[in-house]
Amino acid sequence: MLFQILILLFSLFAIVSIFFRRAKDGLGIRATVFWILFWLGVDLVVLVPNSTTVLANKLGIGRGVDLVVYVSILMIFFILFRLNVKIEGINRQITKIVRKNAIDDVKKK
Amino acid sequence: MIIAIIPAFNESDSIESVVHAVKNHVDEVVVVDDGSMDETVKKARAAGATVLLHNLNRGQGAALQTGHDYAQTRAADFVLHFDADGQFDAAEIVPALQALQNSKADVLFGSRFLNKKGDLPFTKRYIIFPISKVINFVFGTPNMSDVHNGFRILNKKALSAIYIGQDRMAHATEIPALVKTHKLGYIEYPVTVRYFEYGQNVKGGFHILKDLILGKFIA
């Protein structure tokens, strides 16, 4: 019971901070909607723990918890991949700056 | 006008002799120093090369593209890619350039295998080389007798068409793929390679594969 209250409080805090980020840092509408739905989903699972089991059974997975773990791992891998692509993109931007410096320096001479 | 581009990272032992050897065969030698911590820059300058400085290490592909950008500001007709470690023979530059001009192709790729010059370690020939061929096929490069050979000559047309986006070693797969994409003509030319260092090992191969995959997702 305590665990449920803690998570509900945390998700409330998370949703409020999403609105703050939207107002202050210009978080996109898609990201805003995604994260709000994500935390509402978490609330649903916390309040009605069996809800994941119903969905899991439809997908042929025995326990709801297993479904949550599978989906989480997939999401983490996807996010890691996106991060890698983003880092490579930033690397290429850095290279462009280094290259421009190199060419500009030699032109000055 | 032909400009030699020599990417160098901590090559102070060999850079001087390589620049001296190459400069007799080209109009200008450009050493792109990729953030070396030794005396590469000083020695390259002393040997008479134009030195472009990367103040951060960005990789061989990045250094080659920097050389390309510079060559375009100098309105070069040809650029030559040449390694800084002295594994190529500078005497092969002029005949290679002639072969390219006679062929009417746009790009010349050096090949270790056309006439079986040079000696290749056993594992390179029978393990790394076949794997590289498969990777190259998957990423759309033309089928050539050699993969990852650093000796290349590009004409003006190829120079302006090809932009090397792969900063590290994957450029060796990227360049032939771009040749195909831009419908440029290419020839292979036998070159001698002396092995001082092993070059790409299996771990390096995985890095190349990773770079190639990530590269597909970057606009």
UniProtKB/TrEMBL annotation, chain A:
It holds the Pfam family DUF2304. It comes from the Bacteria. The chain crosses the membrane at residues 33-55, 67-85. The keyword Transmembrane helix applies. Keywords: Membrane, Transmembrane, Transmembrane helix. This is DUF2304 domain-containing protein. It comes from Candidatus Magasanikbacteria bacterium RIFCSPHIGHO2_02_FULL_41_13. The lineage of its organism: Bacteria, Candidatus Magasanikiibacteriota.
TrEMBL record, chain B:
Pfam families: Glycos_transf_2. SUPFAM superfamilies: Nucleotide-diphospho-sugar transferases. Residues 4-161 form the Glycosyltransferase 2-like domain. It comes from the Bacteria. Signal peptide: none annotated. InterPro entries: Glyco_trans_2-like, Glycosyltransferase_2, Nucleotide-diphossugar_trans. PANTHER family: RFBJ PROTEIN, UNDECAPRENYL-PHOSPHATE 4-DEOXY-4-FORMAMIDO-L-ARABINOSE TRANSFERASE-RELATED. This is Glycosyltransferase 2-like domain-containing protein.
